[in-house]
Design goal:
By secondary structure, the chain is an alpha+beta fold. The protein is built from 3 helices and 17 strands. The structure holds zinc ion. The site of zinc ion has 8 residues, from loops.
């Protein structure tokens, strides 16, 4: 999955650091990121020394091994010869995997800083805390932490069969699993039962945890579960979010692991009889 970058090590310990010439700099211009694309979907992030001049606000994000990554909000004119803006959609599954993960994760932090420049309570300008990754309002003491929305994803099984779905919306034609955001006041299990009922009109039981995944593209933390169908095996597309929900036996499953998403990892685990 996208976060599985071993033997490289992600360290998100917060510190108010300043960038050195060798540190990597994320410069976003939504929906794009300054980078260099090479053969084999290789992505390179510029280091501070790759800019002929760059001033602005630098924010330390995280490290991977000894490499430190910063976000910059540039001011004035800057140049980075050899680098261009690439669409952040291209970062999914690019190489090396640890840079793909770093860029996607940086994108989530960039959005969080961008979206919280002013206090939602009093309208004052937010400031950055120096001890933890937190924004605070000096006027009313409001505090804001990074946005991480919990979401469930579930493989509904019936013995040797799993229910795969396809979304109704255009542009995404791949098979997926039932998934959805947790609502306030719900446990993960309650979210799962509600989403299954809403999307495919089924009841489930024997909910069992599989794995989780940070999915920075949508500011979510995915919790993956398998569960068994209970009662009717006939899916009904209830809320219009899906256009297809079909049972596939292990040897009929039409998708394979992409090394990126929890969805595919779960489908592959079922196909191989590991769950
Ligand atoms: Zn305030």
């Amino acid at each position: 999955m996208i976060q599985d970058i071993a033997p490289h090590r992600y360290d998100n310990h917060f510190a108010p650091l300043s960038p050195a010439p060798e540190d990597r700099i994320f410069l976003f211009s939504p929906p794009k990121l300054l980078a260099r694309e090479g053969e084999g979907r290789v992505i390179q992030i510029p280091s501070l020394r790759d800019f002929t001049q760059l001033s602005g606000t630098f924010t330390y994000l995280f490290s991977i091994d000894q490499e430190r990554f910063f976000l910059v909000q540039p001011e004035g004119v800057w140049e980075a010869p050899g680098y261009t803006f690439v669409h952040t959609g291209a970062l999914r599954g690019c190489n090396p995997p640890e840079i793909s993960f770093a860029a996607v994760t940086a994108g989530q932090l960039f959005r969080w800083y961008q979206d919280n420049r002013f206090c939602g309570r009093c309208g004052g300008r937010m400031e950055r805390d120096s001890k933890e990754r937190m924004l605070f309002c000096p006027h009313c003491r409001n505090t804001v932490y990074p946005k991480i929305s919990p979401c469930i994803i579930t493989g509904i099984t019936d013995g040797d069969r799993i229910l795969l779905t396809r979304y109704a919306r255009s542009g995404y034609n791949h098979y997926a699993l039932v998934a959805g955001f947790c609502e306030i006041g719900e446990s993960l299990e309650e979210t799962l039962r509600r989403e299954v009922a809403e999307e495919v009109g089924l009841e489930v039981e024997n909910i069992r945890y599989f794995a989780s995944q940070p999915w920075s593209f949508s500011d979510t933390l995915l919790a993956g579960f398998f569960c068994d169908v209970k009662g009717s095996r006939e899916p009904r597309l209830v809320d219009g979010e899906l256009r297809e929900a079909s049972w596939f036996s292990r040897d009929e499953i039409p998708v394979s692991d992409d090394g990126v998403s929890l969805t595919r990892a779960m489908i592959e685990a079922f196909r191989q009889g590991k769950v």
